[in-house]
């Protein structure tokens, strides 16, 4: 893993590589931004670059120091995260103990704390003292989705490096390149905020299946034959797909949105790209306002589901609503 291997986040790369070239690396950084934006990969790449004996502002991947990081056994790199629901004071004390010994090499020691906002108050106060008075040259990298959740005194002692959600188009290109089916990827990048999240749902067997069921239900609803309710009973509520209704409502939302894309001549924006011909032929079955109403209904049913309303009732309400709109 080097800076070149990380997708996007050019501002963060530029800031860190500039610090390496100028030999002006801060003693502490806060990588904050949405989950899956590449913070952990960037932190590891930065640590490798600090240790690398061949390159000034990146990791070569070949030297002994780089290989130690890749194999997870570099003595000067420590990574910690929540132990259960939180990061506890004993973890920070152990970190301090490990970092009481000077590195055998020219480089500083590096520690990475993932989900740093989950530190207990005692752990955060202990870390604060460590940030202020490290016994040896140290670079701290704190990773948090919400940096504002950290103690203000910690925030004031770190250099903030903001991360942004990766654009769907960028993630799509990379995931298709990794061999995932394009039609599934196109949906996944609309449903997850980072590559890690996309890969997780793409690797689930039920994801392709639930997408197919949504397509079938969407088409049957347009026919207003009432068969969608029967199909839902057989293919959703008598199967394990009933455990993924939240995802189903999100996909229905995208399905209706695709109809609007066609109405406005934005076929390049379609999510269900393998259904372009069908969508183009049926988008006019509803007015734009009616498709927007369908999207609102999908969001409302999803909200009810999250408030523990019966899932079958929520889905049936959506299907009735989809089938009940007559052309304007």
From the 3D coordinates, which CATH architecture of the largest domain would you assign?
Answer: 3-Layer(aba) Sandwich
**Superfamily (CATH H level) name of the largest domain:** P-loop containing nucleotide triphosphate hydrolases
Count of the domains: 2
Oligomer: single chain
Let me know the largest β-sheet.
5 strands, parallel
Radius of gyration: 25 Å
Calculate the terminal CA-CA distance, rounded to whole Å.
55 Å
Strand order of the largest sheet: 2-3-4-1-5
Tell me the fraction of residues in β-strands, as a range: 5-15%
Number of strands: 5
Morphology? elongated
CATH class of the largest domain: Alpha Beta
- Binned, the helix content reads 40-55%
Number of helices: 15
Poorly predicted runs of 5 or more residues:
none
Q: Structural class of the secondary elements?
A: alpha/beta
Enzyme class: transferase
Keywords: Nucleotidyltransferase, Transferase
Protein name: DNA polymerase III subunit delta
Organism: Paenibacillus campinasensis
Could you give a short description of this structure?
Helix content is 53%, strand content 8%.
How would you explain this protein's 3D organization?
The chain is of the alpha/beta class. The protein has two domains: 3-165, P-loop containing nucleotide triphosphate hydrolases (Rossmann fold); 204-324, Zinc Finger, Delta Prime, domain 3. 53% of the residues lie in helices and 8% in strands. It has 15 helices and five strands. A five-stranded parallel beta sheet has the order 2-3-4-1-5, with helices on one face. Helix 5 links the parallel strand 3 (109-113) and strand 4. Helix 1 (10-21) packs parallel to helix 2 (39-51) and helix 8 crosses helix 9 (195-202). The longest helix has 19 residues, at 205-223. The mean pLDDT is 92. It comes from Paenibacillus campinasensis. Its EC number is 2.7.7.7. Keywords: Nucleotidyltransferase, Transferase. It holds the Pfam family DNA_pol3_delta2. GO terms for molecular function: DNA-directed DNA polymerase activity.
